[in-house]
Amino acid sequence: MVCFEPSKAAKEFRMQHYKTSLADEAATQALGKSLAQCLLAGIVIHLHGDLGAGKTALTRAILHAAGHQGTVKSPTYTLAEPYEILVKGEVTKLMHFDLYRMRSADEFIEAGFRDEMNEKTICIIEWPEKGDGILPLPDLAIHFTIAEIGREVELRALSDKGNICLSQLHFAPNL
Questions:
Q1: Where do the DSSP E strands lie in the chain?
Q2: Which domains are assigned to the chain?
Q3: Tens digit of pLDDT for each residue in 84-137?
């Protein structure tokens, strides 16, 4: 289900919005696989949700679907993990950030992570609220909520890139 919700940014383009339930980890993996097919170089994705909501599981599924063969560990202690994946047949760098343990937003800049925010690198950021005021605005915001059964997930495009990504998303949950 993709629906239009007017906002300030919607003046220039039609904002894509997708909300669904994920019954289990297999559904989260299926969403990650679908997202991997519509990634664009330079896209910034913010992942929101409580501990255990599925942020790292989604990132792991995206990475594996995009060709990463090795393990995908949560960068909770290192703050960032780089990967090389295939996006539309091109080798592309993906940076997976987990800012949960960051004490201040300035740590992001001090670590040199801002240099990773460019038109070539895909950035997936868990706990982006820890970098408020420092991080670039996301192209795509994904919110996870733990439900009675599984998870609720909401994907919202916040830019042209996010809009393009969601307009290409083909996902049938829980099949």
A1: 17-22, 44-48, 80-87, 90-98, 122-126, 140-146, 151-157
A2: 19-167 (3.40.50.300)
A3: 998 888 899 999 999 998 888 788 888 878 888 889 999 999 999 988 888 989
